[in-house]
């Protein structure tokens, strides 16, 4: 599976036009053979910044998407909206989408989820230690009623860079996570192995899909 993120910064006056064009692309892309995901999120503290999150079964599916008419039309319509060149990153999924705990899988999502992306640089000789601790965190987090997503990725060109992609139902659920024992255990286990203590977290709001599809 191929997982990509494209980080885009827009000229502020083009935000609405970009959202409209990209939602149309997303609706077409998720129906393409070989596509596994397409999400668009907007940074909360800088509304000109977006992240497109795409997944494809293989290279052929990705190439078919990029050579298709919907993508070509989208690309030609939005490139002039960019404030700077976009940044594309490819990831290896360590933990991709996992099912919700049985006790919460049928609970409706009634408000926009709170989405966080955390990028972490890990010491090169401590990758397994970090990975084991984060997998334990993932299992405990997914069992919590307020969690919607917890995904764990490793950057392909920089294997010591990891990305956590999380979504929660409410501010209270985020607080519960941060103050939980499993999160404190994870911090205790991973802080010593984070390289130069480089850990950055960004909050996003969903643009696509709708809240009930997260």
How would you summarize this macromolecular structure in one to three sentences?
With 214 residues, the chain is of the alpha+beta class. The protein is 31% helix and 35% strand. The protein has an eight-stranded antiparallel β-barrel with strand order 1-3-2-8-5-7-6-4, surrounded by four helices.
Explain this structure to me?
Helices cover 31% and strands 35% of the residues. It has an eight-stranded antiparallel barrel with strand order 1-3-2-8-5-7-6-4, surrounded by four helices. The protein has two domains: 2-85, Alpha-Beta Plaits (2-Layer Sandwich), CATH 3.30.70; 92-213, 2-Layer Sandwich (Alpha-Beta Plaits), CATH 3.30.70. With 214 residues, it is of the alpha+beta class. It has helices spanning 15-29, 59-66, 69-78, 127-142, 171-178, 181-190; strands at 2-9, 35-43, 49-56, 87-95, 114-122, 147-155, 161-168, 194-208. It has six helices and eight strands, in the order E-H-E-E-H-H-E-E-H-E-E-H-H-E.
């Amino acid at each position: 599976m191929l997982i990509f993120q494209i980080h885009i910064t827009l000229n502020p006056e083009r935000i609405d036009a970009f959202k409209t064009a990209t939602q149309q692309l997303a609706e077409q892309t998720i129906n393409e053979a070989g596509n596994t995901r397409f999400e668009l999120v907007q940074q909360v503290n800088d509304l000109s910044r977006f992240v497109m999150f795409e997944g494809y079964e293989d290279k052929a599916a990705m190439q078919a998407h990029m050579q298709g008419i919907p993508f070509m039309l989208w690309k030609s319509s939005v490139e002039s909206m960019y404030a700077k060149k976009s940044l594309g990153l490819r990831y290896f999924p360590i933990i991709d989408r996992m099912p919700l705990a049985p006790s919460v899988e049928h609970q409706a999502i009634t408000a926009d989820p709170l989405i966080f992306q955390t990028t972490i640089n890990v010491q090169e000789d401590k990758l397994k230690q970090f990975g084991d601790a984060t997998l334990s965190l993932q299992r405990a987090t997914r069992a919590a009623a307020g969690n919607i997503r917890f995904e764990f990725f490793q950057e392909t060109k920089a294997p010591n860079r990891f990305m956590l992609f999380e979504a929660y139902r409410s501010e209270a659920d985020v607080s519960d996570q941060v103050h939980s024992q499993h999160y404190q255990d994870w911090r205790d286990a991973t802080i010593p192995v984070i390289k130069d203590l480089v850990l950055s977290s960004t909050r996003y709001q969903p643009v696509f899909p709708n809240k009930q599809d997260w």
